[in-house]
Design brief:
Helix 3 crosses helix 9. By secondary structure, the chain is mainly α. The radius of gyration is 21 Å and the shape is globular.
Length: 367
């Protein structure tokens, strides 16, 4: 199979100029140290907040179903914030200069949410970040039976309504990830550009143990403490619906919207952009300069900065985003930015377009 490649290798005049300014104004100054210190403050805060959410849940005495649902909502939201602000940076070795520290904190904080840190890192770093929005090479837009997310996917008749029923699919996203998606990926022979050559028994055992620990923390222990089994199950479901809707609407428009590109290869396997221009063309920012959004969303709102500098702390993204905007204008490269609400609307418009227009175009080649 022909190897997919970027049209101009891995460099561009845009990125060379941008990187020089980022080095001079941020990396080689006190700004980087300040950002790293702030990231550690956030790490401690969100980790303690998530632990407190569990302590608060377990300390309840004969709670009503409504109070129990609020406690689970607190656990879920604090977990999402921990993932946004700590797990993601640690996954990219942006949290610490020590790789072991990153690995421990990433696996601990991510697995605490019931999802496999080990499997997600493979998909995220080795697939999505290498070829975002490239069909057959980005695991995040793998073909699925529910939603058509890429113009290169075949159109099913019922998907003409996907912009209407998508919200119901999204409500179950994290629960599906925990119960189904991880297990499917464990046994899939191929995920986008990644071939499964078998996983070590040690990792599979760890995978099972974390799943059981998550069930114990949120189902078995509360019921053992005397909470209503029905109340616990309902609260668990409410938590996952809330988690799913927040997770999806923070993340999905950053790549899947009307403004972003879905590049395909030519007859020799070359993509139309160089690597760095590709990252901008396939990403969407919303409120990238906002320190408030950065505080809660861990830099996901500044997605161009993340794709260009994944190994830098997200607490530096507002400054990087400003420089990206300036250099994108200077060099005439694509840069997509909307408000959060406009980005969400754009995503649903994109779903409608994908459901009513058959843009099927086969890729010239696959990895």
């Amino acid at each position: 199979m022909q190897k997919i490649k970027y049209s101009s290798g891995s460099s561009s005049a845009f990125f060379k100029s941008l990187n020089q300014v980022v080095q001079d104004k941020l990396i080689n100054t006190r700004e980087l140290k300040k950002a790293q210190a702030m990231l550690w403050v956030k790490t401690v805060f969100y980790f303690l907040l998530h632990i407190y959410a569990y302590v608060f849940l377990y300390s309840q005495s004969n709670p009503s179903d409504g109070r129990l649902a609020l406690c689970y909502f607190f656990v879920g939201i604090s977990g999402i914030l921990l993932g946004f602000n700590v797990s993601h940076d640690a996954c990219h070795d942006a949290l610490s200069k020590n790789k072991f520290t990153n690995t421990i904190l990433y696996h601990l904080t991510f697995n605490m949410q019931g999802t496999s840190a080990w499997l997600w890192k493979i998909r995220h770093n080795s697939s999505h970040h290498v070829f975002p929005n490239v069909d057959g090479c980005d695991a995040d837009i793998d073909n699925n039976p529910f939603l058509r997310l890429s113009p290169q996917h075949p159109l099913k008749k019922y998907q003409q309504y996907q912009h209407l029923y998508a919200i119901a699919v999204y409500c179950l996203y994290t629960l599906h990830w925990f119960l189904v998606k991880d297990i499917l990926y464990l046994f899939k022979k191929r995920v986008a550009n990644i071939k499964n050559n078998g996983y070590p028994a040690r990792q599979i055992i760890i995978f099972i143990c974390w799943k059981l620990a998550y069930l114990a923390a949120l189902l078995f222990i509360p019921i053992w403490l005397g909470f209503s089994p029905t109340g616990v199950l309902l609260a668990f479901l409410v938590m996952h619906v809330a988690n799913s809707l927040i997770f999806i609407h923070v993340l999905i428009a950053t790549h899947l919207c009307m403004e972003t590109e879905f590049p395909i290869t030519d007859n020799i396997g070359a993509l139309p952009f160089d690597y760095y221009t590709h990252q901008l063309a396939t990403s969407l920012d919303y409120a990238p300069l906002s320190k408030i959004c950065n505080l809660f969303l861990g830099g996901f709102n500044a997605h161009a900065a993340h794709h260009l500098y994944p190994r830098l702390p997200h607490t530096l993204y507002p400054q990087i985003s400003k420089l990206i905007q300036e250099k994108a204008n200077e060099f005439g490269v694509p840069y997509n930015q909307l408000s959060l609400l406009a980005a969400i609307r754009s995503h649903y418009k994109y779903l409608k377009k994908m459901g009513r227009s058959d843009h099927s175009t086969a890729l010239s080649s696959f990895l």
